[in-house]
Design goal:
It is built from no helices and 25 strands. It has one domain (10-344). The protein is 0% helix and 59% strand. By secondary structure, it is mostly beta strands. The chain has strands at residues 10-11, 23-25, 30-31, 51-60, 64-72, 76-85, 91-99, 104-105, 113-118, 123-129, 132-140, 146-154, 162-167, 173-190, 193-197, 203-212, 216-227, 233-240, 252-255, 258-261, 265-268, 278-282, 287-302, 307-322, 328-344.
Length: 345
């Protein structure tokens, strides 16, 4: 079924909690009025505990990957950061689990505002203002040292993003915005070393999510941001596994800030051996990619009521993808990730 592109602004939810629209868009057209969420008939007091909201920023450099997240999944907040050294395989991750998401503040939309966690020791502050996004982190005691970030991320209004709005059974839904290939400048201090970002080859991603999920959920997400051999900025965003995607998937190519929408993508990979090559082919014949992992990040959480396991593979994409205009792009050694995630939340 053809994907449905949304082009008009409006509200996300009707007063009864149902979605006003479903589809995909190049920009976040729908106002995220989560106060209208209405999916429990007899336990309305429990509804705020089931709403999931997060801002996940990541920066891919030629040598490292840096990631910072502020999230509120209802009954807890989850604050985490991780660093990966591609050459050595050195990896470290720290997570703070915050009952009732105390000291977590996330804005209504993705186009302005401040996302903050501050418990008096650790502070993460993400700001959106005009065509700039800033990421500031001060995390003492991160891996026997400190993790500090002071990043400026460029996102002009013309830079398109992959936005999807999909239903997930019984007035549940997912509103998601993913932005690839944003030039990043500034620095990250880690293990006493300062990493300076060069915006010509250091690119930021944003995964902005708001929604009400089923308690037991599963998804696969693949993403990359980098350069073609001719110097053009190129990104991939793909995935499957949750919700009703008959009107919208998140599959797309991003070329110099423009979205080229792809149809359903069939994955071939082994969850018995995540390090084996992953194959992705789109049903419209426009994408034929092999992802070869070189590093596996495993993150597990078991808090009884909340259980999560993610295998996030970092590797290189090779293959071809065709633009909306019919140009065949050769993807060669594009660094990115593919992950499988199971959650009870």
């Amino acid at each position: 079924m053809p994907q449905r592109e949304l082009k008009e602004p409006g509200l996300l939810l009707h007063p009864d909690g149902s979605l006003t629209n479903a589809g995909w868009a190049r920009q976040p057209l729908l106002e995220c009025n989560l106060e209208n969420a209405n999916f429990y008939k007899n336990m309305k007091f429990w509804q705020p505990m089931r709403i999931k909201i997060w801002d996940y920023y990541a920066v891919t450099t030629p040598t490292h990957f840096f990631s910072f997240t502020i999230s509120d999944v209802g009954y807890i907040g989850s604050i985490f950061a991780y660093v990966i050294d591609f050459a050595s395989g050195e990896y470290h991750e720290e997570t703070l689990t915050i009952p009732l998401a105390k000291n977590v503040s996330l804005p209504r939309g993705s186009e302005s505002g401040d996302s903050i966690f501050d418990d008096g020791k650790v502070r993460l502050h993400f700001r959106v203002e005009g065509d700039k996004r800033t990421v500031k982190v001060n995390w003492p005691g991160f891996y026997n040292g400190a993790l500090k970030a002071d990043l400026v991320i460029d996102q002009p209004s013309s830079h398109e993003s992959m936005v999807i709005v999909i239903p997930i059974k019984d007035k549940r839904f997912y509103y998601n915005r993913k932005i690839n290939c944003m030039p990043a400048s500034g620095s990250v201090e880690y293990q006493g070393e300062i990493f300076t970002m060069d915006p010509t080859n250091c690119f930021a991603n944003l995964d902005w999510g708001r929604g009400v999920w089923e308690y037991k959920s599963f998804w696969v997400w693949s993403s990359a941001s980098g350069l073609l051999e001719d110097g053009r900025r190129v990104g991939l965003n793909m995935g499957f596994g949750f919700g009703d995607t008959t009107q919208a998937t998140e599959n797309c190519l991003i070329l110099d800030g423009v979205i080229h929408k792809l149809e359903l993508i069939n994955y071939s990979y082994s969850n018995k051996d995540f390090k084996a090559p992953w194959k992705m082919k789109s049903e419209d014949g426009r994408l034929d990619i092999v992802f070869t992992p070189f590093f596996e990040r495993v993150a597990k959480t078991d808090l009884k009521v909340l259980n999560s396991e993610v295998h996030q593979m970092f590797g290189k994409y090779n293959g071809t993808v065709i633009t909306d205009q019919g140009e065949i792009l050769q993807i060669r050694d594009l660094i990115g990730w593919s992950e499988e995630h199971h959650a009870k939340w």
